Amino acid sequence: MKRLKEVMSKGIETVAPTTSLRDAARRMDRLSVGMLPVDESGTLIGTLTDRDIVVHAVAEGVDVNNTRVRQAMTAGVTVADEDDSVADAAAMMAESQVRRLLVTNSQKEVVGTVSLRDLAMHVTDPVPVAEAVRGVSAH
C-alpha cells in the first residue's frame, strides 16, 4: 500500500492568523490550493479553506480587507505522518470528517497535504477512498 509521502501535495505554505482574508485568498489563488494551514509562532492552530472564506466572510458581507484569518478559520488541525498508509489516512479523514489532512515528517514539520482527490488519483484499491468519502459525507 502506498504511503502519504508518495501521494501528497508538497510545497505547502502557511498563513498567519493576522493576515487579511483578501491576502489569504490571493495566496490560495497564486498557489492553486483550497486550504492554508494557519500558523501562529510556529504552532499550527487551524486551517483556512476557500469555503471558510465564503461561508464565514463573503456570505456574511464582511470586509475581506479588514477581516483576519483568525475570524474565519477552522480551529484545530488533523495531521497525519508522511509514512502513514493511504488506508490509514482515509480512515482518519472519515473519522474526523475532513476532506484534507496536513502531513508532517518525523520532526513534526508540515511537509504537505493530502486530499480525498489525492487519494482517489493515486490508489489502486478504491475501498479506503470510498470509506473516507462516506465518512466525510455523513454529517
Automatic annotation (TrEMBL):
Transmembrane segments: none annotated. SUPFAM superfamilies: CBS-domain pair (SSF54631). Residues 8-64, 73-129 form the CBS domain. InterPro entries: CBS_dom (IPR000644), CBS_dom_sf (IPR046342), Diverse_CBS-Domain (IPR051257). Keywords: CBS domain. It holds the Pfam family CBS. It comes from the Bacteria. This is CBS domain-containing protein.
